[in-house]
Design a protein that fits this description.
With 185 residues, the chain is an alpha+beta fold. Helix content is 29%, strand content 39%. Among the domains are: 28 residues; 79 residues, ANL, C-terminal domain (GMP Synthetase, Chain A, domain 3, 2-Layer Sandwich).
Length: 185
């Protein structure tokens, strides 16, 4: 292939600047960021987040404050039980390689070998202190198993229905797992 220098000279300085700028962008984008890949063979795809107890207590407090703002309801106690704790799902690379080998020996016999390799590599990043932490792609809150609400003014069936409706709107829990009880004096 022969280079035509006359055509190259007619490209113009603006296009040469654009080409140079694109080259600089390619060089800058190839500089590694703060993310790194470390090989760890893991079977679990998640790690536990904040303690389930702190989530439970915080949610109970918020629900208590909400219910006490209802007309005619006071002195509320809320108890929440959890089915499972929360978790953070971390990012992993899963390199995959497949190798097929067909061999024939001198006597005419053949052998086929299939080899499949798959590893898991956790993706890490460096925080502001320089510590490596796994890259979190999703956080799941704890799953609520049941809720009991006890308070003054909750003996009326209309109030009970309002409390159950409010809880069902806030949490993915069915009505048969919610108990609303009038508090005794």
């Amino acid at each position: 292939m022969k280079i035509n220098w006359k055509e190259i000279k007619t490209v113009g300085i603006d296009k040469w600047l654009l080409i140079a700028f694109a080259g600089v962008l390619l060089v800058v984008s190839s500089v590694p960021s703060g993310c790194s890949v470390k090989k760890k063979n893991t079977t679990d795809n998640s790690i536990i987040i904040q303690s389930a107890d702190s989530y439970e207590k915080n949610t109970e407090k918020r629900l208590k404050n909400l219910i006490e703002k209802m007309d005619g309801v006071s002195d509320v106690v809320v108890m929440i039980t959890l089915k499972s704790g929360g978790e953070k799902v971390i990012l992993k690379q899963q390199p995959y390689s497949k190798k097929n080998v067909d061999e024939t020996d001198s006597s005419g016999g053949t052998r086929k070998t299939n080899e499949i390799n798959q590893d898991e590599e956790v993706i890490y990043y460096k925080d502001e202190n320089g510590d490596e932490k796994p890259y979190v792609i999703k956080e799941n809150t704890p799953i609520i198993e049941g809720i009991v609400v006890m308070g003054c003014g909750l003996g009326d069936s209309k109030k009970k229905a309002e409390v159950i409706s409010a809880i069902e709107a806030l949490f993915p829990i069915s009505a048969h797992k919610i108990s609303v009880i009038e508090k005794s004096n």
